[in-house]
Design goal:
Helices cover 83% and strands 0% of the residues. By secondary structure, it is an all-alpha fold. It has one domain. Helix 3 runs antiparallel to helix 5.
Length: 108
């Protein structure tokens, strides 16, 4: 039973963040296109930056909870791995944003 919460945290950090972002961007495009616009032109402040920050930091928090011992015993390694997660996940989310935008006719 103890491993289920750990598996859920790990799943959120690597899969849940990606799925949540895809759902957010896809839903934003569908709503905006149904009303004759694009998400960043329809709303003055489309909250995509805040959503990315929230999702990436929530994934980082989930990984921190999974690696409490490493945080305590090897803070430098944990810091490097945390920064690596933030950079890689941000790049993945940006790439997914481009894919969803192109799928909705908003290619660069």
């Amino acid at each position: 039973m103890k491993s289920l919460p750990l598996a859920l945290l790990r799943t959120w950090a690597f899969i849940g963040v990606v799925i949540a972002y895809i759902v957010f961007v896809f839903g934003s495009y569908r709503y905006a296109l149904a009303h004759g616009g694009l998400p960043y032109t329809m709303w003055e402040h489309w909250p995509v930056f805040y959503v990315v920050a929230f999702l990436v930091l929530s994934g980082l928090g989930a990984l921190a909870l999974l690696n409490i011992r490493r945080l305590r015993l090897q803070p430098l390694v944990a810091g490097v791995l945390g920064r690596l997660y933030v950079v890689v996940m941000s790049v993945i989310l940006f790439a997914l944003h481009l894919v969803v935008a192109c799928a909705n006719g908003d290619c660069l």
